[in-house]
Amino acid sequence: MFLTELLPQEKKAFLELAHLVASIDGAMTSSEEVFMEDYKREMQLEEEYSIENWSIERILKEFRSERSRQIALTEILGIIFTDGILSDEERKSIELIKKHFGYKTDQFESYRDWIDSIKELSQEQYRPSG
Description:
The structure is a single chain. 65% of the residues lie in helices and 0% in strands. By secondary structure, the chain is mostly helical. It is globular. This is Tellurite resistance protein. It comes from Ammoniphilus resinae.
């Protein structure tokens, strides 16, 4: 949604982070693969970037502004909550991101609630009326 606002190096870091988080619980699901392709398309990186498997520390250092951190966290929460299941590995990665970005628990909870609301709205869009 806001990924176009990221700087070029932040866009690459975001793809690395999304790939890491999406595959952290073993394998990437088909919906997570769709997210990855959508992210690349949104940031206009379809042809130009291949995942290099950066370390989480390297990835998180790239998000230097508060705005870029908010964008990255919001989008990552979207991919994590897409399947409705929060694995232990995903929970640990969220905690690491939250800690590195300096977010307090209440800030993080408001992001999570917002993502849940958006997810619910998008699911309602595809329900038949009647």
